[in-house]
Amino acid sequence: MTADDPSPDPRRGPDPSPDPSPDPRHDPSDESSIPRGGSLLGTLLILAGLLVFLQQVRFLEKTGIDLTDLWPLFLVVVGVRAVRHTEGVARFIGFLFTLVGLGLLALNLGYTDSAWTAISTWFTEHDVDPAVLIPVGLVLTGLFFLLGGPRVFLSKVELNEGDRLGQLAIFGGQVISPQLEDFRGGWLSATFGGFEVDLRDCASKQEVIKLDVVAIFGGGEIKVPTGWKVQMTGLPIFGGFSSSAKFDPEGRGGHPVLKVNGFAMFGGYEITN
Fold first, then answer.
1. What percent of the chain has pLDDT over 90?
2. 3-state DSSP: the chain helix, strand, coil percent, rounded to 5?
3. Of residues 209, 215, 211, 210, the one with CA closest to residue 263
4. Residues 173 and 195: beta-carbon distance below 8 Å
């Protein structure tokens, strides 16, 4: 083989070739962080097994705790998983589950008796009417919504060009087919109702669009342009959600990432093209 011979030397083995360009249709970040129903069920079964084991070895009996008093732990587990693995409204609902579970657990174990006694004593000693907590609660709730509380609890339905989408369906349903030039996300909620939202005629100049979806004894379908890449997170409880939307890097509608944060209880929804 001469110096001008471009053929490779067989003794050197094949020339290293550069890594093939990644498939634009696949992105590792697309991996969903949804706490799968099987994973959640497995965690709850492990908790149930541990509690029954502690009952069988009479550990709970020695501590004076009844097994049935610990059922709020299941709410705490569901809530903690939602807080860790979800975003948006699903994370907020996870916080509620956690707080309610801890409150019921404290009530069952008798910790609230001493706490309530201490609170009552403080109000009595300082001559303060407990009714003062009502306006304080109203003020805090108002501040919560003004500072960006979950818009899913608003009954207002809004759909403005270049703005956000808001839809609330209770014991009914709606079909929406907007034509927006700069869709920015929003929220959808269905309780004993449904929704059908067709966004295929929409476009977006945003890099990331966030959409919160809640389905409780209800659900719906969301259709998106092929140019949108869908990422899903959420908390399914005896419900579910899925996406069969195909991503085409040359598709219409711009090329944003649509992050759908959902909560489904005895209901569900699907994202398609």
1. 5
2. 40, 25, 40
3. 215
4. yes
- pLDDT of 84-95, one tens digit each? 776 666 677 778
Distance CA 57, CA 55 (A): 6
pLDDT of residue 239: 81
Contact 92, 261 (CB under 8 A): no
Check if the beta carbon of residue 224 is closer than 8 Å to that of residue 204: no
Q: Is 88 left (phi over 0), alpha (psi -120 to 50) or beta?
A: left
**Residues whose CB falls within 8 Å of the CB of residue 204, separated by 6 or more in sequence, listed in order:** 180, 182, 183, 184, 228, 253, 254, 256
The CA distances from residue 50 to 80, 81, 160, in Å, are 18, 18, 52
Length of the chain: 273
pTM above the 0.85 mark? no
In whole angstroms, what is the distance from residue 272 CA to residue 253 CA? 14
For residues 176 and 196, is the Cβ–Cβ distance under 8 A? yes
Q: Kindly state the greatest CA–CA separation across the chain.
A: 103
β-partners of residue 158 are: 166
What pLDDT shows up at residue 271? Answer: 92
Parallel, antiparallel, or unpaired: how do β-strands 185-191 and 194-198 relate? Answer: unpaired
- 250 confidence band (pLDDT: 50, 70, 90): confident
- The answer to whether the CB of 219 falls within 8 A of the CB of 194 is yes
pLDDT of 151 strictly over 70: no
pLDDT higher than threshold 70 for residue 6? no
Helix, strand, or coil here: 28?
A: helix
**pLDDT above 80 (res 147):** no
Indicate the domain borders of the chain. 37-123, 152-272
- Measured between alpha carbons, how far is 132 from 73 in angstroms, rounded to an integer? 32
98-117 mean pLDDT: 79
